[in-house]
Amino acid sequence: MYAQNVDTGVTRLRSKDELSDAEREFQDRIDNDIRIEPKDWMPEGYRKTLIRQISQHAHSEIVGQLPEGNWLTRAPSLKRKLILLAKVQDEAGHGLYLYSAAETLGVSRDEMQDALHTGKAKYSSIFNYPTLTWADIGAIGWLVDGSAIINQVPICRCSFGPYARAMVRVCKEESFHQRQGFDIMMTLAQGTPEQKQMAQDSLNRWWWPSIMMHGPRDEDSVNSAQSMEWKIKLFTNDELRQKFIDQTVPQAEYLGLTIPDPDLKWNEETGHYDYGEPNWDEFWQVLKGHGPCNRERLQARVDAHENGAWVREAAVAYADKQAAKRSTAVSQVA
Amino acid sequence: MKEWPLWEIFIRSQHGLAHKHVGSLHAVDAEMAIENARDVYTRRNEGVSIWVVPSAEVVASSPGEKAPLYDPARSKVYRHPTFFPMPDEIKGM
Predict the structure, then answer these.
(1) How far is B92 from chain A (nearest CA, A)?
(2) What sign has the CA pseudo-torsion A64, A68, A72, A77?
(3) Cα–Cα distance between A218 and B77 in angstroms, integer?
């Protein structure tokens, strides 16, 4: 998802008997759905995993602005441009809510950004794919933000208070993102044959990355069990993926577009769609930094940070100067 | 370079409720904190008034003191109106 393959630092799940008294008391609170707040005692593993997960989620929101930013100056109308600007602005806000939630765990914003810029921290695999046509903006909203909603709605109930609260805000705004994407797809699908083909081409390219975005198969996800025990993950990757597919197939049918999976078919027995296996090798390659746009995305973030350094420094210098002026004024009055 | 200080943001909605904590952000001074809070937290008409408070100035109760702080209230159920049974015939109370 926006946080994929988050390392929990464990190789196997310990039973309750193996936990220390403090750990057991902590796990009891989680089992009883009592939220953990930043100043409460927590196991180091829980803290570190959450920092990894929330910061990775935040980085994804920030890097996620880049593929869409690519079309801001080329949106087909002023209305579409304004809407896309509002969406990209939302993503910046989502990044901010999440960075703030992570900061309550004792990590600084600078440390997190540094981890992103040096490649130590990850962001979602999905943002390493290029946006080649305007239809891709539709596909991202429809499929990528659609996936995000399925993943993020449960996190509103996760065990860590600040993360859960940030997610409530994010989810409210995410709904707008998905609908604006679907609206673009609908307009193209109901347009000229060329426009419809453009929508189909976009679906062809974004379908599998969206499927993989939900993370590795459950049996290949070593960290899921611990994260679920801690309730910082509430459904498995495969459960979320299935939910996304079941929800999206009828939407594609409405658009008259074909999902590029020959194995996709309704299973009367399970009440779900069966689907084919994504190219997992591609997923791991993208995660390791070898996707189509990994280098470009990271470079764009580093450039923005470095080129903005003078603005940040000037703002501090100005604030210091104003504070000094105020204190001189106060001492003169005294 | 030193990191910009952290501010806690409180917003009052238009429905006359008290200012409510909505999140935090970094800003060099109070003025910038208000401007950023406006951009981040009121993009959809969420509020008509913003308070910004330096996070470092917030004094919080300690989680370790939960028992001495809150346990005394537990035994005082008579503080709730539902403690007093009312006959069905009595209306408007």
Answers:
(1) 37
(2) negative
(3) 48
Distance CA A172, CA A31 (A): 27
Q: Dump the DSSP string for A197-262.
A: HHHHHHHHHHHHHHHHTT-S-GGG-TTHHHHHHTTS--S-HHHHHHHHHHHHHHHHHHHT---S-T
Q: Looking at this predicted complex, what is its ipTM? A: 0.86
Per the CB < 8 A criterion, the answer to whether A229 and A29 are in contact is: no
Binding-site residues on chain B for chain A (CB distance < 8 A): 1-4, 6, 22-26, 28-29, 32, 39-40, 43-44, 60, 62-63
Q: Which of B1, B62, B63 sits opposite A313 (nearest CB)?
A: B1
First to last CA, chain A: 59
Query: What letter does residue A127 receive in the DSSP assignment?
Result: G
Q: Considering only CB atoms, which chain A residues are within 8 Å of B32? A: 315, 319
- What pLDDT digit, counting tens, does each position of A63-104 carry? 999 999 999 999 999 999 999 999 999 999 999 999 999 999
The pair of structure tokens assigned to A56 is 């990775």
- The answer to whether the CB of A205 falls within 8 A of the CB of A136 is yes
Q: Which residue has the tokens 């238009």?
A: B14
Q: What is the pLDDT of residues A240-284, one digit of tens each?
A: 999 999 999 999 999 999 999 999 999 999 999 999 999 999 999
- Whether the pLDDT of residue A53 is over 70: the answer is yes
Q: What is the 3-state secondary structure (H, E, C) of B59-90?
A: CCCCHHHHHHHHHHHHCCHHHCHHHCCCCCCC
What residues of B are in contact with residue A169 (Cβ under 8 Å)?
Answer: 22-23
In a 10 Å sphere around its CB, with 0-12 CB exposed, 13-18 middle and 19+ buried, how is residue A33 labelled? exposed
* Residue A31 in contact with partner chain B when CB distance is under 8 A: no
Per-residue pLDDT of B58-78, as tens digits, reads 998 887 788 889 999 989 999
Q: Do B43 and A90 touch (CB under 8 A)?
A: yes
Radius of gyration of chain B (CA): 21
